[in-house]
Design goal:
Layout lengths: L1 E5 L3 H10 L4 E3 L2 H7 L3 H12 L3 E4 L5 H12 L5 E6 L2 H12 L4 E6 L2 H10 L3 E4 L1 H6 L4 H15 L4 E4 L5 H10 L3 E4 L1 H6 L4 H20 L4
Helix pairs in contact: 1-3, 4-5, 5-6, 6-8, 8-9
Length: 219
């Protein structure tokens, strides 16, 4: 499973890349606005850091506007993927962009049927928002599992990005389903490292090492 960071913060991306475990980044206007950075410049900076797929979202709502905006965003860097909302206009834009070889990420997906439409339109990626589905008292993981089964049934080329991930178990469950990609906030990525037995083990090893050094005369 590939790991994407859902952020526009360069320090977070840089650290994930240095760890060697981040394959790409997803962003949106909200995330970039939080960084108070020029939109296109920040997208370019992210592409230069991660050198993998970087999803940048359109703000137009009509399909022609989406296509025009997508073409401009695609010029920023070869790694840019265009995030398009799952609406009738969005599907039309995805179809048009797929004909031109521009990679797309169908976003704001909340049902298996929406994911099917995105795949049929030729989306490169589809992003089901599991956390937001949970927020409205539905089962985000069940939705994700159904999408995986359907895509396997029909051998769609579209890759599934588990999005709106809230905690490490979302990542584990997505991996068990065979989801292609999980995109997560940096805080969740950090939690993937954590286990109390790891901390106890390191503490014990270091204590034993210091005891050994004392015995050996500080060697």
């Amino acid at each position: 499973m590939k790991i994407f960071l859902d952020t526009a913060n360069l320090d977070e991306i840089r650290k994930g890349v240095e760890w060697g475990i981040v394959d790409g980044v997803t962003t949106n206007p909200t995330l970039i606005a939080r960084e108070k950075a020029p939109f296109k410049e920040r997208v370019k900076e992210i592409c230069q850091l991660v050198k993998g797929p970087v999803s940048a979202e359109v703000t137009a709502l009509d399909w022609k506007g989406m296509v025009e905006e997508a073409k401009e965003l695609a010029k920023i860097d070869e790694h840019v993927v265009i995030k398009i909302p799952l609406t009738p206009d969005g599907i039309r834009a995805i179809k048009a962009l797929s004909y031109e070889g521009i990679k797309t990420n169908a976003t704001l997906v909340f049902s298996p049927m929406q994911a099917i439409l995105a795949a049929k339109a030729g989306a490169t990626y589809v992003s089901p928002f599991i956390g937001r589905v949970d927020d409205v008292s539905s089962d985000g993981l069940k939705m994700l599992e159904e999408i995986v089964i359907i895509f396997n049934n029909y051998a769609f080329d579209t890759e599934i990005i588990a999005a709106s991930i809230r905690h490490p178990m979302h990542v584990v469950e997505a991996a068990l389903m065979g989801v292609d990609i999980a995109t997560m906030p940096f805080t969740v990525l950090e939690k993937l490292f954590k286990h109390p037995l790891t901390d106890i083990g390191i503490e014990r090893f270091m204590k034993d090492w210091e005891e050994y050094r004392k015995i050996m005369g500080g060697e």
